[in-house]
Amino acid sequence: MSQIPLVDVKAQYAPLIPELERRFRDVLDSSEFIRGRNYWAFQDEAASYLGVANAVGVANGTDAIVLVLDAMEIGPGDEVICPAFTFYATAESIARRGATPVFADIDPATLNVDPRDVAAKISPRTRAVMPVHLFGRPAAMSELAELDVPLIEDAAQAFGAPGVARLGAVSTYSFYPTKNLFCLGDGGLVVTGDEQLADRVRMLAFHGSRNKTDFDFVGYNSRLDELQAAMLRVFLTQLDEWNRGRREAAARYAELGLGELVELPQDEPGHIYHLFVCRSSERDRIRAGLNEAGIASGVYYTTPLHFQPALRFLAYEPGSLPETERVAEDNFSVPLWPGIPAEVQERVVDVVRAAVGVGAAR
């Protein structure tokens, strides 16, 4: 069998190429390459889809977080609580602003930040909590909201997940090409119901200015590209179907018996499976078998953020976040994308079964 990728992005956009080419030509014809009609239209359409009042397109998901922290005037002397089992950009953005990332452990059932540990980490210096909706599963927002601390949702992996962008003060998204809603390069979004916060983010993303003449803040140059906005407008119309396809593929892995061989991600109605991340003490053996069979797999955050070289100054000791450290050692993902063929998933399960030495299903 030919190489099976972890995510087949082209399988998603290939049927849309004629429309994407038409939109590309429209942008060329318009000569509007910065903050053109697609830039403004996508923001309105994304806000409507998410049910929020304001959406601000920015250059990427990391900028989205930094801009929010800046707009909230979070900086030196402040603390922001977040998980250590997530991509580096979450804590990097906090540190970039001169604030201190404070790591809370995760719930081993969901892999999202544990509200109980968040509550234990709150101090007089805490300015915000930054939950991550990891791998497409919404974090425990209701419990976190009860802590009465502003919530900055890192929703980079969860565009379209039910309940996201509802209880937080602000939410940030990434449109990196493997995300559920993706563009053909880099892109990001900030969404909030707070008009004042949205206005400040909008200005900060445009050099601290409204009109390119008067500059009220020391800002950034972080704008969603017009061409990417045009592509995103097409992809947004497909998102619900794509997310349904991801959920169907996740359910099929369970039906095929993968859960008899490894620990599957627990399903819930809001999970949109940005990635299908399993756990097993035999991870390395399984991945070796998949690789030998030409099947891609992935592992995530094997060096959790509290052990990253750039964050050693925070002085976390081994064992300080036990659930985070355990999952870093045994997690792995298998191929999943909207429309993944059933025979591909059957092949994946057969290879995993052989790797762990379990007889074929009858």
What does this protein structure show overall?
There is one protein chain. This protein has 362 residues and is α/β, with parallel strands linked by helices. Helices cover 38% and strands 11% of the residues. It has 13 helices and 9 strands. The strands form 3 sheets. Strands 1-7-6-5 form a 4-stranded mixed sheet, with helices on both faces. A 3-stranded parallel sheet has the order 3-2-4. Helix 5 (89-96) links the parallel strand 2 and strand 3. The longest helix is centred in the last third of the chain and has 17 residues, at 239-255. The chain is globular, with a radius of gyration of 21 Å. The two termini are 23 Å apart.
Topology:
Layout: H1 9-13, H2 17-30, H3 37-50, E1 54-58, H4 61-71, E2 79-83, H5 89-96, E3 100-104, H6 115-121, E4 126-129, H7 141-145, E5 152-154, E6 170-174, E7 188-192, H8 195-204, H9 226-236, H10 239-255, E8 276-279, H11 283-292, H12 322-330, E9 331-334, H13 342-356
Parallel strand pairs: 2-3, 2-4, 5-6
Antiparallel strand pairs: 1-7, 6-7, 8-9
Structural class by helix and strand composition: alpha/beta
Biggest sheet strand order reads 1-7-6-5
Kindly report the oligomeric state of this protein: single chain
Portion in helices: 25-40%
- Largest sheet, if any? 4 strands, mixed
Radius of gyration: 21 Å
| H/E topology pattern | HHHEHEHEHEHEEEHHHEHHEH
In the predicted model, the low-confidence regions spanning at least 5 consecutive residues are none
Shape call = globular
Q: Give average pLDDT, whole number.
A: 96
Instruction: Report strand %.
Output: 5-15%
- What is the total tally of β strands? 9
What's the helix count?
13
Query: For the terminal residues, how far apart are their CA atoms?
Result: 23 Å
